[in-house]
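Sequence, please.
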């Protein structure tokens, strides 16, 4: 950081998919099971989402799909 400026160095080009997290089917099933278990404990969707690092909409959709 010479002179207090943040510098970037171009390293090359890449595909978007190389930078995105991929979820396997078993990961999704495990996440869904966690969502349902937490919901059985009467934990609000917002707290479930916060705990699992996902959106509240995802929690709501997964609960709806599994009921």
């Amino acid at each position: 950081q010479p002179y207090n400026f943040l510098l970037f160095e171009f390293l090359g080009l890449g595909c978007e998919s190389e930078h995105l997290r991929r979820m396997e089917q078993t990961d999704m099933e495990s996440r869904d099971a966690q969502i349902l278990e937490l919901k059985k404990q009467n934990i609000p969707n917002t707290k479930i989402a916060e705990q699992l690092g996902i959106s509240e909409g995802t929690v709501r959709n997964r609960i709806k799909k599994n009921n």
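The longest helix spans residues 25-40.
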